[in-house]
Amino acid sequence: MAAERGRFDRGRGEQARERRREQIRERREQARVQAREHGLAADAAERSGERAGKSSGTGSSALTRSRVRLDQPRAPRRSLLPEYDPEAFGRLSERVARFLGTGRFIVWMTLVIIVWVLWNIFAPDGLRFDPYPFIFLTLMLSLQASYAAPLILLAQNRQDDRDRVTHEQDRKQNERSIADTEYLTREIAALRMGLGEVATRDWIRSEFQDLIKEMDERRLFPAERDEGDR
């Protein structure tokens, strides 16, 4: 009877568990359906708001703004300015700055200027494209300088940012090194204080030597010692 009752109780427990699982599944399905309905309703409201905004003007635009969904990413805004990668542009500026700071650039620029001037002086009149006083050459040099200066400044700013990060890391490393040094110093001082109370090899050796001397003296003069004791 007890075994049958135990089996009956187990069967009832399993049935109760199955019912609970089914209830949980039904609740999850209902929650999913409600979420879908809510999402569809929100989309419909947004669409209706947009249509009403087109027809009524600014009054409905406030409603559409207040009904922006937070569970979706914002659509990218269109900009009239050109888009670019700041990191790639920064690397390009550093390359240009490195080239402008080399002797190769100075040599090439000097050769170009010399050829430019000689061509516009000694070439035939029909082939001269920049006669004296070389206004076009001056314009090109000023244009090159106007572009080179911002690129150099941008490269310097990037280098300053890297130096700042490096200095911060060095400062933190120095702080950790100082903390480790102070800890080791305290540990060494504690070891010294602890070793001051420990018997060293030299001290034990000196004590043994004193004991040996005392034993030798007692062996050499035993009678005098006995009389003195009496």
TrEMBL record:
Q: Is the keyword Transcription regulation assigned to this protein?
A: no
* Location of region: Disordered: 1-68
Record flagged with keyword Nucleotide-binding: no
Entry keyword set: Membrane, Transmembrane, Transmembrane helix
Give the compositionally biased regions (Basic and acidic residues): 1-53
Polar residues bias located where?
Answer: 55-64
Q: Tell me, what's a Pfam family for it?
A: DUF1003
Q: Which residues cross the membrane?
A: 105-122, 134-154
Output this protein's name. Membrane protein
- Which classification does the entry list for the species? Bacteria, Bacillati, Actinomycetota, Actinomycetes, Kitasatosporales
